[in-house]
Amino acid sequence: MKKVLLAGAALSLLMAGSAWADIKIATVGPMTGQYASFGAQMKGGAEQAVEDINKAGGVNGEMLVLEVGDDACDPKQAVAVANQLAGSGTVFVAGHFCSGSSIPASAVYSEEGIVQISPASTNPAYTDDRPGPGTFRVCGRDDQQGDVAGKYLVENFADKKIAFVHDKTAYGKGLADATMAAYEAAGGKPALYEAYTAGEKDYTALVSKLKAEGIGVLYVGGYHTEAGLIVRQMREQGMDTILISGDALVTDEYWAITGEAGEGTLMTFSPDPRKDPDAQPLVEKFRAKGVEPEGYVLYTYAAVQAWADAVKAAGSTDFDAVVEALNTGTFKTVLGESGFDDKGDVKLPGYVFYEWKAGTYDYLEN
């Protein structure tokens, strides 16, 4: 009987040790709501990264356990999720998606000693005003994106009236303002600057105003759902106005909303990692599972990669040690080989233009 009890105790200790050895990480984004397609991208990227890392032996011999958090791109919900993750012992978060969620959540992570690497939050304030040294991103910034877009507008549409609209969010307004500032700095004069309300279905009043003003190019600071409805409603009113936007249009759901009305839409996004020959084995692995690694799938994968490599370099998940490794190291990820600057911004190429054609997007041909 004693041997049985001792054996049971040993098994319990072994199981407890295995559970203790698991490293809890998370990805957080809009898993529900109108931007859920981006949450699905993040979830797919994080799950594949964890699977691949664990198959290769884990991190310092310990297995990763992934939790998926839903903030619905709502700041209050983002903070609630961040607190929940802190209470569960999470040491790293690949997230959030919306800048309006990442920024308030970063204060929680900083306070709790959790490393945060966003794959998608582009508002400059996310890193410019970061609450602590553990806040990073593997995507670009809106001031970089805006600079590229603003100069392009001046160089290519000098003969057209250009309007700037935004959805009042940290991301949308920040992107529209950065693009308009670059446009004005390059000599452009905006014909109109307006805000619209995200989540509505009818933008007829805005579209009618654009038509009355003779707007030839519309720059939208916002997400794919509203941009898709606006371009569709412009076509319904007989307008051939070109819609230009940013990285929040990198989802096939945009075309599902617009149909042929989305033909010719332009947008800025970082160089497509799917086109990198080194990434092809991983891209094919996703596609074999029925997942197209568009948009922020590979960016989320890269966020997990960078953190895991930093943990290996640090030899532990200790917050200070991992932050030091992230600040000083160079990491080979699916996005390429790079590190982070003193703000936590990634040192990777900036933005290029894409065009929507026949249901998909690809680099804009000059």
Question: Outline of this structure?
Answer:
The chain is an alpha/beta fold. It contains 13 helices and 14 strands.
Q: How does this structure look, described?
A:
The chain is α/β, with parallel strands linked by helices and 366 residues long. It is built from 13 helices and 14 strands. It has a seven-stranded mixed β-sheet, sandwiched between helices. Strands 2-1-3-4-5 form a five-stranded parallel β-sheet, with helices on both faces. The chain has a two-stranded antiparallel sheet with strand order 11-12. The longest helix has 20 residues. The radius of gyration is 22 Å and the shape is elongated. The N terminus is likely disordered.
Write the layout of secondary structure elements.
Blueprint: H1 2-21, E1 23-29, H2 36-55, E2 64-70, H3 75-87, E3 92-95, H4 99-112, E4 115-118, H5 125-128, E5 135-137, H6 142-156, E6 162-166, H7 170-185, E7 192-195, H8 204-213, E8 217-221, H9 224-236, E9 242-245, H10 253-258, E10 266-269, H11 280-288, H12 297-314, H13 319-328, E11 331-333, E12 336-338, E13 352-357, E14 360-363
Helix pairs in contact: 2-12, 3-4, 6-7, 12-13
* Proportion of residues in helical segments: 40-55%
First-to-last CA distance: 80 Å
Mean pLDDT over all positions: 94
Helix and strand pattern: HEHEHEHEHEHEHEHEHEHEHHHEEEE
Radius of gyration: 22 Å
* Structural class by secondary-structure content: alpha/beta
Lateral arrangement of strands in the main beta sheet: 7-6-8-9-10-13-14
Shape: elongated
Number of strands: 14
Q: Strand-residue fraction?
A: 15-25%
